[in-house]
Design goal:
The complex is a heterodimer of chains A (726) and B (147). By secondary structure, chain A is of the alpha+beta class. Helix content of chain A is 23%, strand content 24%. Chain A has a 7-stranded mixed sheet, sandwiched between helices. The chains are: A alpha+beta (726), B alpha+beta (147). Chains A and B meet through helix 11 of A and helix 2, helix 3, helix 4 and helix 5 of B.
Chain lengths: 726, 147
């Protein structure tokens, strides 16, 4: 019996499992639930200073059985990092408040906590820098002296570090007529006149040039990071919650000087990740502790540590948009300043995506983008649902509305006039295919009853495109088990997005069997073939193709079938030309709201999003991804912001950092735009980026021009005050 | 101190300090994984357990205060529990980490008649956070369970 034929009230009706789904009844084990028998517990000792040097550790109060690990114990281990090799397992030169400088290992968690509190650290403090633009000034301290490109597979494009500055990567787009100019390496001033490229705007009769900001934000996976490690006959085994098992295998092998095949990564289903569980987090220090103690070791982060482990990049984005009086867009210029904190992590990749997503799904004669990934002494920024697109779409879609105001035209019609359509060329040189922007725009506008000549006070729309990780490789294997069932072996990590559900349904469809004949093994690098990683909304798209091939191979050859697909591409970092994405995530959003003029509180009556899905594999899963993205986008728009004082995060807890609750979602509705026969499109993040500008445009239509997220009541009222004063 | 707790209809002997939180005892000594720690300050609801039918945050409840009361975790709900069945029918979960707490909170709302409409359900869920953002389907599930 297939899922669709089940009685709607029968257990398991909504998912491809038999009986009640075990996620409801605590029938699955997350990394935090597991553990290796006999393991000891690790606590990380973290820097109190944002920049400086550890001058000494006082450990005389520690009991004899406590194992203390200091930077001296990692001297022989090489630097690592997924795109820039700028990290060290424990550092003597901390670069943010919370940087790992030492560790203790004890038989119980309680002993480890006590021991960590007994270690006294002395520092020599140095000057720190927190703001991305301040970090570009000549007098700014350098967070890192040099920027070494990582050897890791995750460094999938050429880095352009700017030596002698805090810029570890510069990504540029220059459409053909704008190349070969004499330009400065880094534009450091938000009012720079942009003389070398000014002719791009020669045909523009109206120019809007504005600056927008987005803050650091927290992923808040409900399950904290939990890693378990042990060494077995010279092999390292790690059981951890990670979206990047094969990147982790490679990076740990590099750190410990062993073959990748001698590292085994096992990934139980995670209690949420949203980008927070990517690349090496606590796994290297946990593995080192296991090696030094000769025992299994476990490390579970406290909530304040989860907040500080990795964040969403704060960004300042300047957008210059030029149009003719008839509304035709002529040129776009973007400067994106991406604050990657103390370590690059995947900040260079985020900067690249922020750069081209900010151009938006529009036609231009000329496009020039500079996106800078900048070190500061804040906690590191990393992958975050929306991956850079949110920050630049916030700016660019607000600017489209400002242009509509300047031209005195309808904001929806202005978008429609300039949208990319099938066969148009994007600023990267890619020809658009499977483009559905106009339909998405109309859908969003209709949801708020947008009328061309009607009253649009309190209404806003936004539209965007976002890329998928390219280049990218996915492999999958299907094995016929002795009992007649099929086992799917794939590295796609289940973080709640429904990975095993997706693999089950696709395998059953391709093998023309029932879903209860399919079992999906836990991602285990000893058992599953290579996959790039579970990020960028790529997995359902890539695995749908790999599984199709694996099923075909199995049917042809018998017991085991192997599928292998890869997408070539990538962008030139100096011109932005190439293949940004093998397919496009396309989405729109709209909002209808009122603002309380006394309090500045925004009350939404409608928040709508429409995303192009192509073929839907799992209806409930697709809807949930969309609703989850919108809920995150809502929090991003209205209240989520990490705050810092002298580099120290001041709200690393859920009482001071608010995330959306059931009380916030009454206005949400959406459409997953399905097209039978189309290829599978990723849906994991599409509805995040358009939500904040849709709300922002609606708020601005009421006279509150807010440039900085989140749109708190204070900022809303300040925006009106500033407008009145000017 | 040695205490006897009533958990899911059974008596369990545990050895705790007076300040040990109930969620830690249930996880580390009773062997349950349904109650979970996320925020650690009683705000997010992943540690929710029922104490004589009332939802409480196990991460801020000192264990001695639970003595003499019936503690129910998601593992203690009957196999055919209607709230569980409705969560399943509506696919009201993604990662699932917050769901046992949601189910127990919903169980009490349904039992006490506090799930009359969607507005009341949203109010009742104010102390249970879900970062995957499954609220709409969770509300659908509770609405049906209360019908």
């Amino acid at each position: 019996m297939t899922t669709s034929e089940r009685q709607p009230d029968a257990p398991g009706a909504s998912s491809a499992v038999t009986g009640i789904n075990p996620r409801i009844t605590a029938g699955i084990r997350y990394p935090v639930d597991g553990g290796i028998p006999g393991e000891w517990h690790l606590r990380i000792i973290r820097s109190d200073v944002p920049a400086g040097r550890v001058t000494g550790f006082e450990t005389s109060l520690l009991d004899d059985e406590i194992v203390f690990i200091s930077p001296d114990d990692v001297k022989e281990l090489p630097r690592f990092g997924c795109q820039i090799a700028d990290q060290i397992v424990l550092t003597r030169e901390p670069k943010f408040v919370g940087d790992a400088i030492a560790a203790v290992v004890a038989p119980t968690l309680k002993d480890a906590r006590v021991a960590a509190s007994l270690v006294e650290v002395s520092y020599e403090q140095r000057t720190a820098v927190y703001d991305e633009l301040a970090a570009l000034r000549d007098e700014s301290p350098l967070v890192h002296e040099r920027h070494h490109t990582s050897e890791s597979d995750s460094a999938y494009f050429d880095m352009r570090p700017q030596d002698g500055t805090n810029v570890c990567h510069r990504f540029r787009i220059r459409t053909p007529n704008l190349r070969g100019r004499e330009e400065v390496a880094v534009v450091t001033d938000l009012t720079d006149p942009d003389e070398p490229l000014a002719d791009a705007f020669d045909d523009a009769e109206v120019i809007v040039d504005e600056v927008f900001q987005t803050p650091a934000a927290a992923h808040v996976p409900m399950e904290p990071h939990a890693a378990n490690a042990q060494w077995v006959d010279g092999r390292l085994e790690v059981v951890t919650g990670t979206q990047t098992p094969f990147n982790m295998r490679q990076d740990l092998a590099g750190i410990f000087g062993i073959a990748a095949e001698d590292v085994r990564i096992v990934v139980p289903p995670m209690g949420g990740a949203f980008g927070a569980k990517t690349f090496i987090r606590t796994e290297a220090i946990t593995a080192l502790a296991a090696r030094l103690t000769g025992r299994p070791v476990r490390c579970v982060l406290d909530r304040d540590e989860v907040f500080n482990e990795v964040t969403r990049h704060p960004a300042t984005v300047r957008v210059r948009l030029g149009a003719k009086k008839d509304g035709t867009f002529v040129a776009k210029r973007i400067w994106a300043y991406v604050n990657t904190g103390a370590y690059a992590d995947c900040g260079p990749g985020v900067a690249q995506k922020m750069g081209y997503a900010g151009v938006g799904p529009y036609r231009f004669d000329h496009v020039a983008v500079d996106s800078y990934c900048i070190y500061t002494n804040l906690p590191p920024g990393g992958a975050f649902r929306g991956y850079g697109a949110m920050q630049s779409v916030w700016a660019s879609e607000r600017v489209v509305d400002m242009m509509a105001d300047q031209l005195g035209v309808d904001a929806v019609e202005l978008r429609r006039q300039n949208l990319l359509r099938e066969g148009d060329t994007f600023c990267t040189g890619e020809v658009m295919h499977d483009a559905h922007f106009e339909e998405l725009l109309d859908d969003a506008a209709a949801a708020v009853d947008w009328k061309r000549d009607g009253d649009r006070a309190g209404k806003g729309v936004a539209i965007m495109l976002k890329g998928m990780q390219t280049p990218s490789t996915a492999e999958a294997r299907i094995e016929l088990l002795p009992d007649g069932r099929y086992e799917v072996q794939a590295a796609t990590a289940d973080m709640g997005q429904g990975a095993s559900e997706m693999l089950t349904r696709l395998a059953a469809e391709n093998l023309k069997c029932e879903t209860d004949q399919i079992v999906v093994c836990v991602p285990d690098t000893d058992r599953v073939p290579y996959d790039t990683r579970t990020t960028s909304s790529r997995s359902t798209h890539m695995m749908s193709r790999a599984l199709e091939e694996a099923a075909r191979d199995l049917i042809e050859h018998g017991r085991v079938g192997h599928g292998h697909v890869s997408n070539d591409g990538g962008l030139d970092p100096d011109t932005g030309q190439g293949v940004a994405s093998s397919h496009w995530h396309q989405g729109s959003a709209s909002a209808d709201l009122v603002v309380d003029e006394d309090t500045g509180v925004i009350a939404l009556s409608t928040l709508y999003a429409s995303s192009y899905a192509g073929k839907v594999v799992n209806k409930h899963g697709a809807e949930l991804q969309q609703e989850g993205s919108m809920t995150l986008g809502l929090g991003t728009a209205l209240f989520e912001e990490l705050q810092f004082t002298e580099g120290q995060m001041t709200n690393p807890n859920l009482s001071d950092y608010n995330i959306a609750s059931a009380l916030d979602v009454a206005s949400i509705s959406h459409r997953v735009m399905e097209l039978p026969g189309a290829e599978v499109h990723g849906l994991g993040e599409t509805a995040v980026p358009p939500v904040p500008p849709a709300i922002g445009n609606a708020v601005a239509s009421l006279g509150y021009d807010v440039r900085q997220l989140p749109m708190t009541p204070e900022r809303v009222l300040d925006a009106r005050r500033e407008q009145e004063e000017s | 101190m040695n205490l006897t707790l009533r958990v899911n209809g059974r008596s369990v002997d545990v050895d705790v300090e007076p300040t040990t939180m109930l969620v830690d005892v249930l996880r580390d000594q009773v062997g349950l994984t349904g109650p979970r720690v996320t925020c650690g300050v009683g705000l997010c609801g992943t540690c929710t357990v029922l104490l004589d039918g009332e939802p409480v945050s196990g991460c801020i409840l000192m264990t001695p205060l639970a003595v003499g009361k019936e503690i129910t975790t998601v593992e203690g709900l009957p196999e055919d529990d209607r709230v569980v069945a409705c969560f399943d029918k509506h696919h009201a979960f993604q990662c699932g980490f917050c769901i046992p707490g949601m189910v127990l909170t919903a169980r009490e709302m349904v039992d006490k008649g506090h799930a009359g409409d969607r507005e009341e359900i949203r109010e009742g869920l104010g102390g249970n956070l879900c970062r995957c953002g499954c609220y709409l389907k969770i509300i659908d599930a509770i609405e049906e369970a209360a019908r």
